[in-house]
Amino acid sequence: MSGSFEELRRQFEEDLVHASSLDHVKLVRDKWLARENGIITGEMRRLRDLPKEERPAFGQEMNRLRALVESRIEESRAALQASEVSKSRKRADVTRPGYPHALGTLHPIRQLQEEIEGIFVSLGFTVLDLPEVELDYYNFEALNMPRNHPARDAQDTFYFDENLLLRTHCSTVQVHAMESMKPPIRAVSLGKVYRRDPFDATHSPMFNQVDVLVVDAGITMGDLKGTLEIFLKRVFHPDIKMRLRPGFFPFVEPGAEVDISCIFCLGSGCRICKQSGWIEILGAGMVHPNVLRISGVDDAKYSGFAWGMGIDRVAILKYGVDDIRLFFENDLRFLNQF
Amino acid sequence: MKISIEWLREYLDLPESLEQLRPSLTMAGHVVESITEVAGTPVLEVEITSNRPDCLSYLGIAREIAALYGKKIRSGRTAKSMRVRKERVAYSIDIRDRDLCPRYIGLVLDGIRVGSSPDWMQRRLEASGMRPVNNIVDITNYVLLERGHPLHAFDFDKLHEGKIIVSRACSGQKMVTLDGVERDLDSEMLLINDGAGPVAIAGVMGGRDSEISDATTRVLLECAYFQPASIRRTSKKLGLSTEASYRFERGADWDGPPAAVARTCYWMQELAGGRIAGSVQDVYPAAIAPVQISFSRGRAETLLGVSLAPEFVESTLKCLHFRPVRKGKGKWLVQCPSYRADMELEADLIEEIARFYGYQNIPATIPACKSAGQSSAVHPMEQAARNIMRGLGFSEIMSLSFAGVQDHRRFPLSDGLPLEIRNPLTEETQFLRASLAPGLVKAVKHNFNYNQRQVRIFEIAKIFRRSADGAVSERNALAMIGTGGSTGRNWRNPGAEYDFYHLKGTVMALLAGLRCAPHEVVPAPAPSWLNEASSAALMVAGKCLGVLGAMHPALEEEFKLKQTMYIAEIDFQGLCPYLFSPIQFKPLPRFPSVERDLSIVVSREVSYGALRLAILGLGVGELAALELMDVYEGDQIPAGKLGMTLRLTFLDREGTLVVDRVQSFSDTIISLLQNSFGAELR
Fold it and tell me: Does pLDDT of A67 surpass 50?
């Protein structure tokens, strides 16, 4: 008896699977559900011939079959109808271009600045927006570079008058931060800096820097290395290696030049790294006691580190740009690549 | 500094192959830029940082290598004595400015035969980048390179009265230096004079008149110590940098002169027939005390983040010729070598310890963070503005902050003066820019040259000016240019030619995106660089914070642009306080709104802004929106008039609007338009 249910169901599914149009589905429906001569009606007629005790079970099975057939036919019909409606619409040539939305681009150096700023905010730094036209005091004097200091040679400066100049580095953040904040200090400043270098493939009278200052009790050179490592790995690549070697900047002591493993040859030596496997990327060090003192920070109690990096240089390395002037010529063929 | 390996071997046994020496020197702070072969010997190009003038010499480099590898130094032979029992010449040294010249040593030799120096010496000088001249000059240069201490040789017979007087120049004084140039002197410059006048600019360059010549037979040797800042000032002022001034201005060895003279004397006796004719005179009125620095191991450990053995501290300092004297546990008083001009504070000694400990051996640690990170106040607004502009199809540019005379003529300041650079690179970079417009126009022009004639660009940057009272202002500005092509063009729709309304649309979308306080664009007198026919001011809270419009045709002509530029420049800094207005949620209306379109014909003189203001002025609270749907000017409209379609959206938050009320609102508005603006319904 149950065999007859399974058998009927199998037959029905076979009919339905071949019904590929709405008309055909209707034929299947008539065959199975027609009031007069549908298969299920026919089966129900057999009910009377059955022994009384078998009738309820048989009736239930047939009702179950009817419900199943009805719902399966409805499903099939709906699916076919949806497909036929959509086929009746005009066909789109999906290979044609979509109507364009003109999207602009952000300047590559700005993009890097955003990224760098984000890294520092995540590390608990306060970002300071500092003036480009700066006093000699903030740019040199308070950074342990009094007038007639030979280190000023390396930063040929544009002056407006005796005391007013275009900042030559973002290291001005050191003095400004120590004036406006109390230790613990974590400050960073990004922006344009200026040096009196004529425009050529590797020099620009204007470029961009990021400078960092950390001051607190017990800050060590190890802390400088650890923080630098996080920063450089995020900016360049998690696998980048870093090395510090002694270097000289008047506002730090000990001072360091920081190299990263060459991102082009991965350290094996190439033209870009002059076969050394290393690329000089930034200058760093422990804040010079004179710099702490002049800004009113007790150097017996506090120590700190600072570093400064050229953002254009990072962009040049990251994107393989071969001429710094491209960043400031604003050629759309260049800008659209970023 | 060029270091010939052949010459360097004179002073110590080199430890290993050059390829191993190179990284050691680099990691000790002396970067070996290159190694080249000169006349059969390798020559290292070593970059010497400005704090280490002592390393601008063979002995200096030798000392560093010796310290790194525990080697001994050989410093070369010197004259046994620099005195004669019977003086054959009389000469005197008189230092009249002890501050600028703390020490001056003189020595006179006679019997000098000027000729060529030996080949080996010439080769060494050439390998180190110096041109051989004659034996006397070559010997002084040789000793300069060897010891880092500059010397000068005068022709003694050309010195009047055998006198050396060290004093400041008088202002207005002149002298001709060795290079044949007449130099203007001032009272800050130190001179070496004889009995008649100047014979050298101290520490910078000798004079032509007392120069060594082939006929020279007697020589006065000078070896002095000059104050660094004074030499630097003089060298800068004269625009004259020499091997001597380069070393003196960084700080020479104040205790170096006796040995340098003795060494020079030795070579003059050996190679030029020199005999001491006038004994050495060491005029040193006030002996300079060696620098002594207290050093605490604990301080060094705290600053470096490592622990240091006391033996390591002592041995490192000693191998660098410092003299540490123990002053209790973990403390020393350290006497610094006279040639270490960079030694001032404990931190300087800590760097020496760190250098020899090895920066690479300091473990990296992460300091505890005690603060929350914070962007600058303007940053979120700037960032939002950039992202919105990008979304609106504008590309960000970055131009140089400079401007030239022409830029200020074309885009004059409304008030204040351009900020002028005293020492500009070129005429085009003589000023700082007071407007972003010139940079944008230049960028457009550049792109036109490469046949890119549809340009949408913007920049956010500082602009500068000096107000009448001399104060400098530096403000953040945002400017944009749109020109060429059409907007909204695609393969089904030709789009619309770029015009003023596109620019205004961009400005308004930007301000909306930045949640700017109520603002409007109003007709306004144009700055001279905009076309009066289509220029406007951006008003926020009653303040003019920007201008927008088409560039003046005369300027377009001048730039040969052949295309109209639409420019907007906004005082972004002034705008910031009005941005990011707080958000206050309004409940969503529960009842549907009703729209009515009104098509009217008005005179061309009637501005949409005036209509809008009047309609809003009626105070119909149910008027939820007013939009300009269409403007029609053409055949079906009488001349001098134009058609407008306005869409009015009415909404009652309290209930469903019935047709009668909507009609009465419309009627009120229509009668206003008819009565106040002479409008006719179409």
Answer: yes
